[in-house]
Amino acid sequence: MFKAIYNWIDERLDITPMWRDVADHEVPEHVNPAHHFSAFVYCFGGLTFFITVIQILSGMFLTMYYVPDIINAYASVDYLQHKVAFGAIVRGMHHWGASLVIVMMFLHTLRVFFTGAYKHPREMNWVVGMLIFFVMLGLGFTGYLLPWDNKAYFATQVGIQIAESVPYIGPFIAELLRGGDIVGAQTLTRFFAIHVFFLPGALLALLAVHFIMIRRQGISGPL
Amino acid sequence: MSNREQHEQSHSSAKKKTMSRRQFLSYTLGGAGAFMVGGVALPMIRFAIDPVLQKKTGGTFVKVAQESEITTEPKEFKYQIHQVDGWYESDPVRTAWIARDQNGVIFALSPICKHLGCTVNWNTHNDNQYFCPCHEAKYSIDGKNLKVAPAPLDEYEVELRDGWVYLGPVKPNSRV
Ligand code: HEM
Ligand code: FES
């Protein structure tokens, strides 16, 4: 049945080469944990991506209840956590995933560093990886404000103060982040927009570049 | 001059001044493209940075205490300011420690610790100092940072009108 549907589509659109190009390629022995158990270190990139997908999906679902408004934000998070079925789970996925994604990304970076995979010809992918790293930090920073509790408020206060210490343009950056001169209503809407639209967009674009480069250049050789 | 010569002449001189069809098209397309990108991007950028460019409403002064209440011993005063945060208006409570110096000049300090932003108190240990309970920062009566904190306490702008003390926006400490 599925075979018949697939064949019907493939006959018209020739989709086999498309998915072959994405998925059908050999995994070299030195990165396959079935051959050498220590090759599990090569999994961290994929795990980072897996958790990123979880973040994006759970985040999309959180926005069904969450409102970025200083009067209602806390109440909406409280409601989705305690009153909505599986609220604690979905919020928990997003909450713990946010830390785990940083851990996985860090382990992936260590693997790339200690296998020397960042060297010629893969220098550009190291740079793209660093950009992904900063976008992730940005997602963590902006997301942390959204529950609008005391921890969120003061963490943002401190984070913006750090940004403010940049020479010359610091005060400008701080005011731009705050959307005014206090952490308030306009900060919350701004951070929400950055958290759910701007940075995920940038992240997906960077990930696409990251993966296209990997497919072009292949995985780096054994040590 | 034959027709043909004339034609050739105009052709060769024209070659220097005009651009090729290809160049003309790429400039036109480039210009139109830049115009369209700019037309889309500029409104959005101006929209995003508006809070930075909005005119500051030059802090208003609020009546806080009677001049006769102020002594050389700092006293805590609470007052409300009207705060406009976009579409959200509120009247949060502010606190100031107001005192007179030896010359009788009235000054007001902000209680927000310059270490990490907790709230300081006057004379908790009977040592005539401001003390912050969070990490034990200490400040002199003028707000000078003596321990832990990296900077002196901020000061409020003070105005005296008809025997009343009015406080304005915070400014960096001018006394130490
Ligand atoms: C890799 C990507 C992401 C990271 C690292 C991240 C990180 C975070 C963090 C740290 C919080 C605070 C969680 C808490 O206090 O419990 C948060 C909250 C939130 N995030 Fe994300 N996020 C990501 C992607 C997204 C996306 C794509 C969306 C929506 C499309 C989204 C929507 C939200 C919402 C609505 C909240 C507020 C609800 C809450 O605090 O539980 N996030 N995010
Ligand atoms: S915040 Fe006051 S001492 Fe640290």
What keywords describe this structure?
heterodimer, A: mainly alpha, 9 helices, about 70% helix, globular, B: about 180 residues, alpha+beta, Rieske Iron-sulfur Protein, 2 domains, 12 strands, about 25% helix, binds protoporphyrin IX containing FE, binds FE2/S2 (inorganic) cluster
The overall strand count of chain A is: 0
H and E string of chain A: HHHHHHHHH
Average pLDDT reading of chain B: 90
Supply the number of structural domains of chain B. Answer: 2
CATH level 3 topology of the largest domain in chain B: Rieske Iron-sulfur Protein
Q: How many E-type strands of chain B?
A: 12
What does this molecule look like?
By secondary structure, chain A is mostly helical. Helices cover 70% and strands 0% of the residues of chain A. Chain A is built from nine helices and no strands. In chain A, helix 4 crosses helix 5 and helix 6 runs antiparallel to helix 9. Chain A is globular. The relative contact order of chain A is 0.10. The mean pLDDT of chain A is 96. Chain B is of the alpha+beta class. Chain B has two domains: 51 residues; 110 residues, Rieske Iron-sulfur Protein. Chain B has three helices and twelve strands; from the N terminus they run αααββββββββββββ. Chain B is elongated. The model of chain B has no long low-confidence stretch (mean pLDDT 90). The chains are: A mainly alpha (223), B alpha+beta (176). The complex binds protoporphyrin IX containing FE (HEM) and FE2/S2 (inorganic) cluster (FES). FE2/S2 (inorganic) cluster binds next to loops of chain B.
